[in-house]
Amino acid sequence: MIKIGNREIGRHTKPFIIAEMSGNHNQSLERALRLVELAAEAGVDALKLQTYTPDTITLDVHTGEFFITNDANLWKGQSLYNLYKEAYTPWEWHKQIFDKAKELGLLAFSSPFDETAVDFLETLDVPAYKIASFENVDIPLIRKVARTGKPIIISTGMATAAELDEAVRTVREEGNDQIILLKCTSTYPASPSNTNLATIPHMRDLFGTEVGLSDHTMGVGVSVAAVTLGATVIEKHFTTSRAEGGVDSAFSMEPHELKMLVEETERAWQSLGQIKYGPTKAEEASLEHRRSLYIAADLKAGDVLTKENVRDVRPGLGLPTKYYDLVIGKTIKKDASKGTPLSWDYLL
C-alpha cells in the first residue's frame, strides 16, 4: 500500500485520479486558479503541475534538432525553447496554486525536470513526485527524487523493460519502495489501439509496484478499461475548454469529461468485486423468478401428469425444470389446482 497525503492507493480503494494542468493555464494565474477550482468540482484526488523553466529543460537554440518539423507533431513549427516558454508554469505561482488546491481538499504536487526543481518543490513540502515519460531514463533526477523518501510516480512512455528496471532499482537503492508506474503512450493525443493496456498486470507482476495509466487518449473509455485490468492511478490532462486553446488543449479533458472520468472509473473499480459464483445477496430475491414446474390444469388425486397439465414456467417455486422428463407419466396423490407449484409431495 502506498499513501500520498492522507489518501491510500491500491486495489482495495477507488482509483486515485490526477488532473494534470500542464501548460493549459495559458500563462494566466487567474486561469490556473480557475482550473484548480474546476478540478475540485470534478472530484479528482490530486492536481499536478510541471516544474521547469525553458532554460532548465532545453537550450535557447531555434534551429536543427531544437526546432520541431515533424508533420505528426502537435507542436510542429515551434522551437523547443519557445514551446516550453509558452507552456511552463512560473515558479512563483506554485505556492498560490498549491495553497488553492489544499483549500479545496486536493493534493497537489508536480513533475520536476531537473534537480533545481526538486529543491524548489521540497520548500513547498509536496507529498509526492511525478517523473515524466521523457525523464524516465534520467537516473540522476530519479535518484534525487527517491532520496526525498516521498512516493514517486513514474510514467513509462517509450521505456523498455530494462530501462524501467534501472529506474525502479535506482529508487529502491535509495531505500524508497513507494513506487507507482504509469503505463503511458507518449503521443499526443494517443490512440486506443496504441495503448496496450494488457501491459498493466504484467508490469505489476514484473516490477512489484502499483501500476496505473497516464492517459493521452480522448474520452474516458481507455481509463475505465485500465481500471478493470488493475490500474490504481489514472492521470489525465485537463483544461477549461479545448476551444480556448492552449499547448495541451487538443488532448485535454474538459470539466464535464473530468467529472465523468472520476465517476466511471469508480464504477469500474466497484464492479471488480471478487471471484464469486452463485447468487449474490442482492440476487437472492431474483431466484424466485427462475423457471420451475407448475400444475397447468385442475387435477384430482390419481390423475396422470402429462405435457398438457405440467409446464415449466416462471416463477421458480416448483420443482426444478431438470425433473420435467422424470415427472411426466407419474400419478399425483392429491388434488391440485392450476397454478400450484409441483413438489415431491404430490407424487406417489
UniProtKB/TrEMBL annotation:
Superkingdom: Bacteria
Gene3D superfamilies with a match to the protein in the record: Aldolase class I, Antifreeze-like/N-acetylneuraminic acid synthase C-terminal domain
SUPFAM superfamilies (UniProt xref): AFP III-like domain, Aldolase
InterPro entries from the UniProt entry: AFP_Neu5c_C_sf, Aldolase_TIM, PseI-like, PseI/NeuA/B-like_N, Pseudaminic_synth_PseI, SAF, SAF_AFP_Neu5Ac, SAF_PseI/NeuA/NeuB
A GO molecular function held by the record: N-acylneuraminate-9-phosphate synthase activity
Domain AFP-like stretches: 292-348
Pfam family, one: NeuB
GO BP term (any one): carbohydrate biosynthetic process
NCBIfam families reported for this sequence: PseI
Protein name (Swiss-Prot/TrEMBL): N-acetylneuraminate synthase
Annotated source species: Ureibacillus massiliensis 4400831 = CIP 108448 = CCUG 49529
